């Protein structure tokens, strides 16, 4: 019941652990209930070509409208959902709902880019992910070539290689694949060159202080160089300021996303945002 903490110290976790377990059970029960009661909602954040100011993509980001706690961000429940494998029904919900909703934006000529969807390693390892994707795309009539699946570096570096087949199958039906949060973990370069991927999303941490530290700028430059040599599209996330945008532009990073352009928005709000972009021909918050 004691956990090793640091070098020579042992920390007793007993009282806290009971509370942890209790909280977890409560979260599990609440989350199952939330799925049934449709408390989850998909938000959308635009991805932009900074040279042309075109909206090239929309990333689907899940939110939980909790009846008493309000809007909960994914970082607070995705890890638990993964542990409890509830990420499977949740991930399926996000996939299907976002295809339905973005298809209506395409039909109304408000959007003509791709839809980016985050996929958990748990979903990929489960076995029937490709079948689910095909089925959902068939039902929503969403064009497979307009789907981009984002998987994090940690999934890529996982020892079980079964996901390579999954990615290859997804690519064979036309979907694109991006590595999310790149640089946060540790990817081996040899490994990277053999992967069935199309895009590298440089982690927000590097963009955060790209204007202050030479280090972050250098790393961004290196990743950009690497991506281009490997024929992958470099992409920057977490762009919050004009300065950051301009630096990225000068480094030749064409595609970005961040609060500077728009925060993630509900379906109705993104629809209105896309309308105003169309009407004024400019990107605004
Ligand atoms: P992510 O996929 O790396 O998504 C980008 C996150 O950065 C989003 O947080 C977005 O709101 C935030 N972000 C974007 N631009 C800026 C910016 O300029 N400044 C700041 N401060 N933040 C910015 P969000 O929506 O809270 O999602 C967090 C993470 O949760 C996502 O990171 C993703 O890993 C995970 N996630 C979200 N939706 C899903 C989902 O449907 N399935 C799975 N498996 N994971 C999801
Ligand atoms: Mg993502
Ligand atoms: Mg990311
Ligand atoms: Mg992330």
Describe this structure in words.
The protein is an alpha/beta fold. Helix content is 46%, strand content 22%. The strands form 2 sheets. An 8-stranded mixed barrel has the order 3-4-6-7-8-9-10-11. Strands 1-2 form a two-stranded antiparallel sheet. The longest helix is centred in the first third of the chain and has 23 residues. It is globular and about 50 Å long. The structure holds ligand C2E and magnesium ion (3 copies). One magnesium ion binds next to loops.
- Give a list of the ligands: ligand C2E, magnesium ion
Per DSSP, what share of the residues sits in E-state strands of 2 or more residues? 15-25%
The share of residues in helices is 40-55%
Q: Span from first to last CA?
A: 50 Å
Our count of helices gives 12
Low-pLDDT segments: 1-8
Strand order of the largest sheet: 3-4-6-7-8-9-10-11
Choose one word for the global shape.
Answer: globular
Structural class: alpha/beta
Domain EAL: 24-278
Protein name: GGDEF-domain containing protein
